[in-house]
Amino acid sequence: MKSSPPRSNIILIGMPGSGKSTVGVLLAKQTGRAFTDTDLLIQSDTGRTLQNIVDRDGYLELRRIEERVLRSLLLRNHVVATGGSAVYSSEAMDHLKADGVVVFLDADPATLEARVADFGTRGLAKRPDQTFQQLFDERLPLYRKYAEITITCAGLSHEQVVGEIMDAVENLC
User: What is the Cα–Cα distance from 38 to 63, expressed in whole angstroms?
Assistant: First the structure.
């Protein structure tokens, strides 16, 4: 029986402030992969900031754009930092998982709020009446659903998180 080739990408999911972009750059350097931040791809694709999209067209439009951008990715040997709302699209997540190991950077709400000065300028794809805690509670089951690896980030430096990911990916493959 022929085995399938190893998946070449490492996909980072988690809430804003979990460290996806920072850890992603460090992880890419440590593993010899390229780095892609899908929030930046969305901004480049639309010529707008995420916050501008949310303010002018609403959070659902940002989710639609994100899904389209994620489903169009054809990457090999990358570390991909997704937007926090990527997990709302099963089609996008299935596409990413086809050639990637999904890693959830799990950080508690207090840690996230300490890391992000103002969630009001982050371009969050959330309902206007939704609190950060409600958003966290809504997304947590989705992160757990798609994650093949979960890294608990509380109390760890970015470098320690990278080490944990590298060990977990090696053990998975």
Answer: 12
Classified by CATH at the fold level, domain 9-172 comes out as Rossmann fold (3.40.50)
Q: Give the separation between CA 80 and CA 10, rounded to whole angstroms.
A: 6
The whole-angstrom separation of Cα 43 and Cα 38 is 9
* SS3 assignment, position 163: helix
Which position has the token pair 């402030």? 17
Question: What are the residue ranges spanned by the domains of the chain?
Answer: 9-172
* CA gap 76, 123 in Å, rounded: 28
- Please check the confidence at residue 1 and state whether its pLDDT lies above 60: no
The set of residues, in sequence order, having a beta carbon less than 8 Å from that of 163 and lying 6+ positions away, is none
User: Can you tell me the distance from the alpha carbon of 145 to that of 47, in angstroms, rounded to the nearest whole number?
Assistant: 32
Q: Is the pLDDT of residue 127 over 70?
A: yes
> Residue 164 is encoded by which pair of tokens?
């944990």
**CA end-to-end distance (rounded Å), the chain:** 18
Task: Indicate the average pLDDT of the chain.
Answer: 91
The DSSP bridge pattern shows strands 34-37 and 100-106 to be unpaired
Whole-model pTM above 0.85? yes
